[in-house]
Design brief:
Elements: H1 2-16, E1 26-31, E2 40-46, H2 49-57, H3 71-80, E3 90-96, H4 110-120, E4 122-129, H5 134-146, E5 151-154, H6 160-166, H7 178-192
Parallel strand pairs: 3-4, 4-5
Antiparallel strand pairs: 1-2
Helix pairs in contact: 1-2, 1-7, 3-4, 4-5
Amino acid sequence: IGRIKHTLLAVTKRLRDLAVEFDLRYGAVLYRDLTDDYVTMRRLFSSDIEGFDAALRAVEAGGGGDMPESLNQGLAEAIGQMDWRQDAAKLCFLVADAPPHMDYAGDVAYDRSMRAAAERGIKVHAVAASGLDPFGSLVMRQVAQMTRGRFTFIEYGGDVVASGAAHGVKDTGPANNLDAILFRTIQDELSGW
């Protein structure tokens, strides 16, 4: 969460420097786990990027107790509860360093959310952070593939190649930096829109 806080304004500034006209809105669904202060927290789509950034800066990472988190619920709300515009490029960045709980009664399983995203034209780009286990990587890859998004693995510190290989990543790509990954992905979408 700390890295994302520093990323949004930097990415927005770089996007505004492009010679492309667009109406950018950010929204977020933060998710934790059932035993935490909240399971999900929504920040509705907004064109007020500085205001959105300020709200996000107030969020603190924490909680847990076990490794898995309520990724299923977070993804379900991001796809089904946010005000996605009909005629717009729709990008969702699913960022996780923990696998989903698959044992919660009443949870919306990620496969339902990824099918709903594909039907609505929402591309989910899965960004796996170091610490994610192989099951979490599998889930994130499936979501990205089904929605025509990309799977990206980010390693902060340690052996990037070895850690990536443990998650099925063979090519470290041109940048292993969240700012560059988000900018490149959004730029590619804008150029094709």
